[in-house]
Amino acid sequence: MLALESLIQFRPVHRDSPEQMTMVWEVPPGWRQGRGAWGGLVATAVVRAAVAAEGTSRPVRAVNLAFLAPVLSGDVIVTVTELRRGSATSTWRVEVTDVQSPGIVVHGLVILGDARTTGIDEILRRDESDAQMPSVAPWRDQASIDIAPPLGPEFSSQLIYRPIQGFPYSGSTDDVSCWISYGDVEWDAAALIGLVDAMWPIAIVRITEPRPVATINFTASLLVDPATVAADEPLLHVSKSIGVYDGYSTEHRQLWTADGRLVVDNPQVIAVIR
User: Fold this and answer.
1) Sign of the CA dihedral 272, 243, 69, 238?
2) What is the domain-level CATH number for residue 212?
3) What is the pLDDT of residues 39-62, one digit of tens each?
4) Rounded to 5 degrees, what angle do the CA atoms 253, 224, 5 make?
5) Using 50, 70 and 90 to split pLDDT, how confident is the model at 148?
6) Considering its fold, how many domains does the chain have in total?
7) 20 lies in which domain range?
8) What are phi and psi of 236, to 5 degrees?
9) Which residues make beta-bridge pairs with 107?
10) What is the pLDDT of residues 101-118, one digit of tens each?
């Protein structure tokens, strides 16, 4: 079982005011993607910081992150500020600052919200245009492969991949789909939102030679109760290209449970650097 909790330990935690907390996170080695930490690990840390500051049982609903620069291994400062608290929702700003070369490297917004009107979900789900899980082979029928440097980024060795289609540098027009997991993990909102970033971008499926890419904007909404997601089953990752302009590629990513529930919906903007 992957101890995500041990990777994201905040110290010390200062409640500067009722609306703000400051803490230090030691970004662990072994989780790099290029120069900095894997964006999924950073997203997990940002969400957990907001949850810690919130201090209530309000569930996480949505996240927006701007990755401004690589998050290097070692200590970073995480500052969490409450922007607004309503009767049902609360919005927190999370800023990650590099202590080695001071400056904000990640800016995030995390929205938490209480459950709304009872029965509305059943009404809204009647629309047949709702997203449907793609038809793919069951995860038990899909062989797992080891991905580690130089085949993939450093963090990939921490996950289990069962790829279906859309392979890097193949020049293919396929979408990307893959069963993916940590192996066995106790899911929370932060870990689920982070996992949607684990796959390679469609941009590097379309090209045939390695080129550096980087996510610059990441938006995610959580659509299930994490407690209902099986700890010992992988999730289906799918991503589709939406468009590209001036070397900035937009793609739409989703995570699905094996029983067909949409877990995370995630548009990303990815820069193809050169």
Assistant:
1) negative
2) 2.40.160.210
3) 999 999 999 999 999 998 999 999
4) 85
5) confident
6) 1
7) 4-114+142-272
8) -85, 120
9) 66, 95
10) 779 999 999 999 999 877
